[in-house]
Amino acid sequence: MNAPDTLFYDGQCPLCMREVRLLTRIADNRLKLTDVHGIADDSDEPSRLARLKNLHLRTGDGEWLTGVDATVRAWSHTRWGFLFRVLRWPLIGPLAEKAYAYWARRRYEGLYGCSKCSGAE
Description:
46% of the residues lie in helices and 13% in strands. The chain has 121 residues and is an alpha+beta fold. Strands 2-1-3-4 form a four-stranded mixed β-sheet. A hairpin with a 5-residue loop joins strand 3 and strand 4 (64-66). The chain is globular, with a radius of gyration of 14 Å.
């Protein structure tokens, strides 16, 4: 039996925390939720900064998923997961990726200041 998937979230982001609270209530026991601020940086894994900039999920098999793929995988642990698979459809997927990239950049800059000022990757 594989290890659970682990979703790394920003515990200082109000919007992220809203989703995490919901996932905590409705996800199965194969999804572990971990606050990025509670872990140490590890050179074998994406940095804390990378995890703050984009949603990251490590599958039970050790594969790293980011952004929309991480969202779809996390929600697959709920009975509502089928709704999120739409984000991977050929015509919707590229739009979802662009929308997520824009939102993630704006969220990070809004919470932590501009990337140029913070020495971001």
